[in-house]
Design a protein that fits this description.
The protein is an all-alpha fold. It has a domain of 107 residues: Four Helix Bundle (Hemerythrin (Met), subunit A), CATH 1.20.120. Helices cover 67% and strands 0% of the residues.
Length: 168
């Protein structure tokens, strides 16, 4: 690293992004809040997955959003309730449904971040609700990663309390 460069951990970067996303949310800047919270959500998800994978000694998806999507995808595929008991064909069906759920989940965030030819409008029913969703999901991923509420970060904790988020 060059002497004039700076470095921060991915964890620190996500905490700054999440803090700023919450400030933007409270100020009504929902589009920017979505982008920042979406970035924090993605990195915290990966940190949570990496931490649990190292602990178990195998690659795993370990976060509440992914777990919820797996259960919903299993219901959509008409299978279940234990993923490991499914046939290969049933697992493929679940994965297709899960991929569709993630595409829908990430639609607004990706539409705000990217521009494809012919795309000039970002459609969303409720940008405020979308911002709240991304912030809440990022906070859930933080809790999965750290195994605790963000008690040392007052702005994050305030958001958790105001919207009923908790970690057991």
């Amino acid at each position: 690293m060059k002497s004039n460069q700076q470095a921060v951990s991915k964890e620190y970067a996500t905490l700054v992004q999440l803090h700023d996303a919450i400030l933007l949310y409270y100020s009504g800047s929902y589009l920017s809040a979505i982008t920042l919270a979406g970035a924090a959500e993605e990195i915290l998800k990966k940190l949570s997955n990496e931490t649990m994978s190292e602990f178990i000694g195998a690659d795993v998806e370990y976060n509440q959003v992914d777990t919820s999507f797996t259960f919903v995808a299993m219901a959509m595929a008409g299978v279940g309730p234990v993923y490991d008991d499914l046939t290969d064909e049933e697992k493929r069906s679940v994965q297709q449904h899960k991929k569709s759920l993630y595409k829908d989940h990430n639609f607004t965030r990706n539409a705000l971040k990217h521009k494809d030819k012919g795309e000039d409008i970002v459609d969303c029913n409720d940008f405020e609700a979308e911002a709240k969703k991304y912030i809440a999901n990022a906070l859930m991923n933080y809790c999965d990663y750290k195994k605790k509420m963000p008690i040392e970060y007052p702005m994050l904790l305030r958001f958790c309390h105001e919207f009923g988020l908790s970690y057991n």
